[in-house]
């Protein structure tokens, strides 16, 4: 380990900083279809409540399906919009707020309706 050992002269790669021609990462017309991080957090919670069969208390079977629907409305708003339009012919322009409203309604129901009456 004396001076005869050769020192490594390789360096890390440099990061190239340059300006891209297309600065917008999201097109303006795609904004309604984009899921916000807050909505993704609610979606994760809703899907977890469906998978674990538990939110504030044990879910009933209809609640479990509603948790799943709410999570899917928040995770895949464009997909469900197209599916609803294909099946019913109705235009549902923004399904994500329906998912948020469903999450709020389920949480309020589980908080204020006693478990014995919910079953």
Share of residues in helices: 40-55%
Q: Radius of gyration from the CA trace?
A: 24 Å
- Total number of beta strands: 0
Profile the largest sheet: none
Given helix and strand content, the structural type is mainly alpha
Q: Low-confidence runs (pLDDT<50, min 5 residues)? A: none
Tell me, rounded to a whole number, the average pLDDT.
Answer: 77
Amino- and carboxy-terminal Cα gap = 75 Å
Sheet-strand content, in percent, reads under 5%
Global outline: elongated
- Enumerate how many helices there are, as a single number: 5
Could you characterize the architecture of this molecule?
This protein has 119 residues and is an all-alpha fold. It has 5 helices and no strands. The chain has helices at residues 37-52, 61-75, 77-88, 96-112, 115-118. It is elongated and about 80 Å long.
């Amino acid at each position: 380990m004396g001076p005869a050992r050769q020192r490594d002269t390789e360096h890390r790669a440099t990061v190239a900083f340059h300006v891209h021609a297309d600065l917008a990462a999201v097109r303006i017309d795609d904004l309604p279809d984009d899921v916000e991080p807050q909505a993704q957090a609610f979606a994760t919670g809703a899907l977890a409540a469906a998978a674990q069969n538990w939110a504030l208390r044990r879910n009933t079977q209809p609640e479990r399906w509603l948790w799943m629907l709410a999570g899917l409305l928040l995770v895949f708003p464009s997909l469900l919009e197209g599916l609803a339009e294909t099946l019913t012919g109705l235009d549902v322009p923004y399904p994500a707020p329906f998912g948020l409203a469903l999450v709020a309604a389920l949480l309020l129901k589980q908080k204020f309706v006693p478990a014995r009456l919910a079953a």
